[in-house]
Sequence to fold (694 residues):
Amino acid sequence: MLTIKNLRASVDGKAILNGIDLALKEGEVHAVMGPNGSGKSTLAGILAGRDGYEVTAGGVQYRGMDLLEMEPEERAREGLFLAFQYPVEIPGVTNLYLLKASLNAIRKHRGEEELNAVEFLKLIKEKAAMVEMDEAFLYRPVNEGFSGGEKKRNEILQMALLQPALSILDETDSGLDIDALKVVAGGVNALRGEGRAMLVVTHYQRLLDYIVPDFVHVLHDGRIVRSGDKSLALELEREGYGWIEREPEATSTGAA
Amino acid sequence: MTAGAVEHYLAQHRKIAGALPGRGLGWLQERRRAGLARLKEVGFPTQRDEDWKYTSTRPLTAKPFRDVGAPAAADETLAKKIRALSPEGLRSRQLVFIDGLFAPQLSDAGADTKGGATLMPLARVLEERPESVEHAFGALAPRKPHGFTALNCAGARDGAVVLLEKDAAPEEPLELLFVTSAEDAFAQPRNLILAAPGCKASVIERHVSLGEHASFTNSASEILLGESANVDYHLVQTQRDSARHVCGIWARQERGSRLRCISATLGGAFVRNDLGVELAGEDAHCDMLGFYAATGAQHVDNHTAVLHSAPHCGSREVYKGVLDGRARAVFHGRITVAPGAQKTAAEQSNQNLLLSRHAEIDCKPQLEIYADDVRCSHGATAGQLDEAALFYLRSRGIGEARARELLTFAFVNEVAGEIQIAALKGALESLLARRLAR
Fold:
């Protein structure tokens, strides 16, 4: 579904990604872990089409398309979804409006009928119940005045509604208490399955107790320095990221 | 430059002076003479005047607008055209003026008084019951007005009077509709709203154009709020982009009263709004809200002044605007806290979105505080759309153009959203969306 080859990128002339290779197949959940500044969020941002990065080498194929050539809205319409680390507040646009505009833009792109107000409301209420979100949040401006946890829950609500083929979760666990974390993980797990893939970017292993990955990759200094199965995450939890600093030349070992 | 224009309007004035209503009223004639004297003394403002520094009056003075002798024939066709310019579903009691002259056939017939609210043309009030307006007429406008207001004081031919009885609470909004129609028409409405203690009402002052003709409306309105009166006043400017409008609104609030003034400027080539509010009694509160969307070569100038002269009063001012093309806007917000007006809480904010490199906003907050126990704040911004918000919307599948439109709309609509009359709010929101989409 997603193939990243030798991806190199810089911000303001400073190299952040130094050759990433990664392949996600349908049905797989991959976790990318790494210390602060390792390039995790840059990777997520580039995949979603955020401005401000310069890709200096390599490329990304997504379902047979050159992902980096696509506008952010095209990527979304083709089934790519980024759950933001810092969801943006948009005063004056209600959550409900955004959700409906978004779903209908994607449906239209797929050649499906747009949902009318009644159909949409029924669907979104089901999804809100699933992520245990009070319906009142639907009528509030997007993320405005939401707590950190509510914002993350809102991201998962959008994800549950849009049913993306490829979900990228950028530090979705940060700032969540354990109950919110379980709800968020529940929403993500409900989407797992045939035809979908996920890239879970996180600093801590904690989230991976609830979203159990098929593969774990460790990012350091803009490179994947180790890959393995879920036990690698546990090892990181025990050892911390310190060993990476001590073994700067460590190489990718593939799934154990 | 302006001397010629002053001469022109003085000549116009001489033509109609003999036909002004209420000429037998000494107090009225006295006030008219004072207006005329003031105009002769100061002329029309120029950019040398501090309050007009960023606003050239050339669009008003370069062309001789003329007083329309007789009102346009009000037939069914005209009525239809005017209805088409009204917000869908708005149920209001309406007085209609065409080129400054009262149009009885187009106005709501029937009893003048309903639900404790009397709605009458000024000319009739001055003939039939001048005593009801004598204390307030001309008393709230500035003592030393600029030349345009002075001209209105000297020679307004008609306007609307709203008399709200004690504790009156009319269900329907009271609407004063000003239509410009004839080529190069000059209209001078003069309005007066007297809100007796305890009343609660919504008033809409709406300006529209029929057709593409250029016009100049020089309006002045005064609002007097008695104790605990509660008035929502809507100033709605949706004229064509050939219209010029100088608009003054002055209010005085007694103890415990509440005024919400919402101004929407979504039309007109040149619009200058002067809004002045005096909080004269304790515990009075006013909201001064405004939004504007200008493009092309439009010019929108909002001059606001709130005077806290009594303690424990609050004022909240929020103006938001979007400027595209070569449009230019001016915001001047003055907050004056008089000695002794302790525990004043005043806030002011003016935020602008500039969508083009050639658009311009000149913003000037001015705080004059002569009391020591007060909370006053002000802020002004001029900027572009939030790129993070834009990316967020696009990452959800919404196209860039639509995302920009949506964010721009949302920015201004924060103020429009405060309108309580659903039909008016809906109509202004769609008009705003249409203006931003083109």
